[in-house]
Amino acid sequence: MSHNILKLENNVNTIYNLISYIQKELNQVVQLSNQNTLKVLTHENALLEKQVEQAKARLMQLQGNTELIASIPKSKEVKPEESQAKEASSTPQSESPVDKDTSTKPEKPAKTKPAKAVAPKPSDKDEGPVDIGRLDLRVGKIIEASKHPDADSLYVEKVELGEAAPRTVVSGLVKFVPIEQMQNRMVVLLCNLKPGNALMLRV
């Protein structure tokens, strides 16, 4: 039992010695770090002081230049009217050139074109009476009506007029009469007009 106690005491002493040693080492490290930090701060302070001195010297130089510029007297301003008057008085007046006599040439008479005789337009009173008997008007019946294949505003009608074959007629009645009302409707046609191909309609 006593042997164990002695062993524990020895261990405690060893641990205490180690702790003391570690504390000493830590103190030395702290001192070294403080010294290094102090050196760095001292160096930085020296640099800052040097920069401040340079800035002061530059500021004094600029201030001296400003005072020198302010001490220079300003030149008297010359108004543009005075400068123009001086220039006018210094330049000699040029003599006006003498107008030379120029011989005037007689002007040629302008050529006039003879006016063309305008033929009188025939008035409406000179026209003869209209002969209604020349119009071949007939009554027919639409037997078939359809829309034009190439024009949306036109109808194509086949009209029975009592002839051998019904006539094909093209009319622009799409906007006015529905296609249903065109079927089997009685109409009056003018039959002695010249036949023609309405929009190339094939009949």
Automatic annotation (TrEMBL):
It holds the Pfam family tRNA_bind. Residues 38-65 form a coiled coil. Residues 71-131 are annotated as: Disordered. GO terms for molecular function: tRNA binding. This is Aminoacyl tRNA synthase complex-interacting multifunctional protein 1 isoform X2. Residues 131-203 form the TRNA-binding domain. Keywords: Coiled coil, RNA-binding, tRNA-binding. Residues 86-96 have a biased composition (Polar residues). Residues 74-85, 97-110, 122-131 have a biased composition (Basic and acidic residues). The lineage of its organism: Eukaryota, Metazoa, Ecdysozoa, Arthropoda, Hexapoda.
